[in-house]
Every structure is written in structure tokens, then in C-alpha cells.
Amino acid sequence: MANKRMGRQTVKLTRPPSVVSYACIGSKQEGKGPLAGYFDELCPDSFFGKTTWEQGEAAMQERVLSRALHKGGLQREDLDYLFAGDLLNQCIGSSFGLRDFQIPFFGIYGACSTMGEGLALAALLIDGGFAQLVGAQTSSHFCTAERQYRMPVPYGSQRSPTAQWTATAAGCCILGSQGDGPYLTHVTCGKIVDLGITDSSNMGAAMAPAAYDTLSALFQESSTTPNDYDLILTGDLGALGSRIVREQFAKDGVKLGDRYTDCGLLLYDREKQDMHAGGSGCGCSAAVLNGYVLRGMQEGRWRKVLFAPTGALLSPTSSFQGQSIPGICHAVVFSTTKEVR
Amino acid sequence: MANKRMGRQTVKLTRPPSVVSYACIGSKQEGKGPLAGYFDELCPDSFFGKTTWEQGEAAMQERVLSRALHKGGLQREDLDYLFAGDLLNQCIGSSFGLRDFQIPFFGIYGACSTMGEGLALAALLIDGGFAQLVGAQTSSHFCTAERQYRMPVPYGSQRSPTAQWTATAAGCCILGSQGDGPYLTHVTCGKIVDLGITDSSNMGAAMAPAAYDTLSALFQESSTTPNDYDLILTGDLGALGSRIVREQFAKDGVKLGDRYTDCGLLLYDREKQDMHAGGSGCGCSAAVLNGYVLRGMQEGRWRKVLFAPTGALLSPTSSFQGQSIPGICHAVVFSTTKEVR
Fold this sequence. Notes:
- The structure is a homodimer of 341-residue chains.
- In chain A, 34% of the residues lie in helices and 22% in strands.
- Chain A has helices at residues 28-32, 53-71, 92-98, 114-127, 142-149, 203-221, 238-251, 263-266, 270-273, 282-298, 316-320, and strands spanning 10-12, 18-26, 41-42, 81-86, 105-107, 133-140, 165-166, 169-176, 183-188, 231-235, 260-262, 279-280, 304-312, 327-329, 331-335.
- Chain A is built from eleven helices and 15 strands.
- At the A-B interface, helix 3, strand 5, helix 4 and helix 11 of A face helix 3, strand 5, helix 4 and helix 11 of B.
């Protein structure tokens, strides 16, 4: 059997799946940010028509899949598999939002790396010949995340300068064995990396080592350098975490340069919107990818994009027990051409 | 591209991966049950040497993987991917237990269907040519589950007759492209099924419709009947849920007969151990499979086994908000011969 791996973590897809459709939705703050024009829906009601925020988050998952299907001219029956997960305990945003679709479902948990994990597995199942159309999606919600990880929003807690703002957003990407691109050409599966950071108000620093680890593996195993990409995006490391990644590569003599940025730095206007270290949450990188980035590729702004969302695999319980924060980063490469180097 | 599907949910693997190694560990109650002799380790200390139960559950994940690697004569570097998840919020049993192994990691969430989901994805990645050795594992812990889903154990809450006992157990299965079997020949990915059950003390009834749905799809799409299997096992439906599955098939004129049972009915002696409706938790089906079942296949007790663990995709929050309980069931078929019909 052919092993399609380029190394320990990276797979080069022999028949790169194509993006067939994508959609993203957000709420009030996302509508005030610089990427507002790239959203398919901006709902000013943070309950999304429901009576609880958790049900609101589930409604986001339902709506973003419906929109992606509609934009692609697809029916729910057309999807062979759906990968989804979110930050809520037991991933109820996904399971409740998607229960009526009747699509074979694989629940995943990668914290804020979920969009990368879902795309990676979707691409592998298509390239392996097991499916023709597979969806990958995720969501996050400021109010459900604050209540679950920190304090209920009405308590009005002070936030530390390193804290990030959990996006109220969802993104869905549908990959297919046929299509006009962008194509998903490489998958790099992350390892869990934990360098001992314990401050759960500084997730960027906790996740940065995982991003550095996965990006290093991708560059090395695929024999590429940052210069081979038009855009390199980590997912929600924010200002501090992305600076750490930049510095780590600089120590190796590798300049990431202007082509590198972080989804958490793109979604909001940090000055005007007072977002501290930037945006975060599964929905942050998912919305940035499934709007701004993929549309930008289709419009010719970038030809080759490295998308590497990062997740912090902690829980409030693990933090209460004094544990450090394990991180993970799953990377995928999108290209406007099928040619794989 | 060849679509390897037999239908909407079932894939027939063209090069069925082999079980290369497996292990299971349990604690005090598991050691008093009828399957005690099939465990690789029975630890009477429910903390597994740690100071909190959550860290104890993580230790179970670490130990069961170490044992499976050791039994297979494998090093951690030999595994191409590892799939794992558990019931704890944000799956910290898996992420903390497995963070030191440095194995490319895909976190999954399928509640008590996790063992089936992990095996399904592991088998697909191997058959697709992306990996040669992949691990799938999960765990559950009575004390962490009680605290998180119901009441802390020291409160001494009364349990309802339909309640099940969350197993303190973990199981790990390593699949490979080479091996002497048993072989994993078919994968049936479940859909989320929710018929409106809201009683979170009656998970068996909530998950039974998902088991019926997935088993029906598998029988139909692979043109098999229950008679084609020597053993059909659902995962932790317990006494009530498994009776519902049996009755549903009887209504269709299909007799499951003696070859059908449930992992939740096997792990404990329900009479002597006072386990109410039976065992449950991700670790229940994982331990039953990765001891009793796989060893039984190797010893010639069964040739063809249908393993279909079931998960309840609820959270305490969704129940507090009056929501019903979505269920899911992922099924895989093991056979002592590679020949696929």
C-alpha cells in the first residue's frame, strides 16, 4: 500500500479536493469589524432567534450549513459526511444544530483548531475515495464561552490585556472531489504541545508552541519555505501569540514577513473595538477562512494559502486543578491550482 | 475516483486493516465483574495514583496506550495517527493523558460511540493509504462522570432504576495495514437521531433509535442479516435500550436472537453489583471490545462481530434547558478473515 505521507505529519493529496462552497455568519461585533463585508449573514440578535445562547450557537451551526449548501446548489443528501465540533461542553452547538440534517456525522474536538482538523479529515476521506462531498464546520459564541470558561457576561468581569475576544461566528466549508478550486493540496496533522503555560487568560502564548511545531513540520516535510506561500494564517493566537511564533521562526533564521498574520488580528479592529489581544474561538478562524480568505483566493488576491488554526485543549476544571494548557495546531494548504509540488 | 461506499453510510474496506494490538484497563467494580479476567490492568485506586479523578482518567488514557503499544511490540513513533476522545468537558482525559506521546493527534467527540468513531476513521485512513498504524482509544470514569453530569459522588444521590453505571475503564485498539487479524472490514458512519427523549436518567432509551438506525443501514447497505454475524454488540444501551432495539427489529420481522447483546449488559454482574440498567460510558464498550471481544475472536469464539457503540450527545446545560437527547451510533465489522463479502 502506498504511504502518501511526506513525513511524520504531512500528507500530500494525490487528487486534491476542491472547495465547492463555503459560508460564514457572525453577529454584532463581527459586523463592526473590517471583514464585515465578507459575511453571508450578520445577525444583530446574539440569541439568533432562540431563548438561550447555547441554542443560539446551535442555530448558527444550522444556518451556516444551510447557507453553504444553498450557495453550492446542494441538498443535504449530497453530503457524504459532515465533520463538526465546537467549544461548548459535549459540543452541543454542533450536535443540536446539525441533528435534523440526517448527514453521516463525525463529531470532532480540536478546540479552536477544529476548522483545520475538520478540513484535514474531510480532504483525506475524499482523496481516499470514500466520499465525493464532505462538509467541515465549527462555531463559537462570546456569551456561551464567557459563561463556560470564565464568568457569565452579566457579571461584567474585567478582562486582562492578554485576553482575547471569543468570536460569535460560524464557518462552513464543503470540499468535493470535483470543482474549480481553490484546492486543498496538503494536510499537516498536529501533535499536542504543552510547554507549561498555566495562565488561561493568555491562550495565545499557550498555543504558539503548537503553531510553531506544526508549521515547522509542514515546511520541512513539504520542502517549502514561507516564501512559497502568499498568505500564512494561524488561527486566533492574537497579538502576543503570533509575535511568539514570528520570534521562534526568526531564531531559526526564518522570516515569516508580511505574508504572515493571525485570524485573531483580522476579524476585529482592535483599537476601535477594544478587543485586547484580538479575536479567538473556533468561529474566528472559521469565519475568516470561509469568507475573507476563500473569496480572496477566488478573486485572485492570493494563489497559495497556508491555514493553520490553533486550539487550546484545556477546560476550566483542568485550570482549577493547576494544570498547564496543552495546545494543538492542524494545518492545511489551499492553492488555486491543482498542481502539487 | 472510485467511490467505495456501499450506500449512504457504509464503506466496504478494500484492504481491511488488521487489529495489531489492543488493551483495556479498569478499576475496582470492573474487577468484580464477569469480564475481570480480560483486563490488562485492574487498578483498585480510583485516582490511578493522581490527586484528582480527572487526572486519574488522563492517567488511564496514558496507561492504556502504553500497554497497547507494549503488547504490540511498538514504539510511540510507530503510530501515524491517534484518535481519542472522552466524556469530560473539552475531552481533557484524552488531551492531558496523551500530550507526552508526540503522536499526530485527532481529537474526536462521539460520547459513548467514541470507540466506534475512532476505529472507523482509523480504518479509513489506513485503507486510504495515508497511514500504516493508527490508534483509537477512549475512557470514562465513574467519579468524573457523576460529578460532571449528575452530582458529586460524596452527595450520595439516589439513582433511578433506568440509570446506568459509568464504567471506570479505558480501551485502546491499534489498527495496521499489515497483520493477522481480526480485520476491520466495514464501517457504517452514524447520523444524529433524536426522537425526543428528555430523561437524562434514561440514556438507553434515548440512544436506542440511533442504534436501530445505524444497524438497519449496515444490514441493508451490505446486504447482510443478523444471521451473518456471530456476535452483534451495541455499546452501553443497557437493559432497557437494548430491549428497545430488539423490539424495533422484531417489528420489521428481523430477529436479533441470542447473538445480540449490549456491552452495558456484559461488563458487570447486574444482580450482585447493583448496576441498575447496566454499564455505560465510553470506557464500557471500549473495554469490552479491547479485551473480551477481540481476545474471543483470536481464540476462535466468534468469526464475525458487529460492534456498534452508541453515544448520547447531550450536556447538563442542554438538559437544564429542557432539550431532548440526540443520539448517534457508529458501527464497524470485525472478521477473522480478510475476505470481504
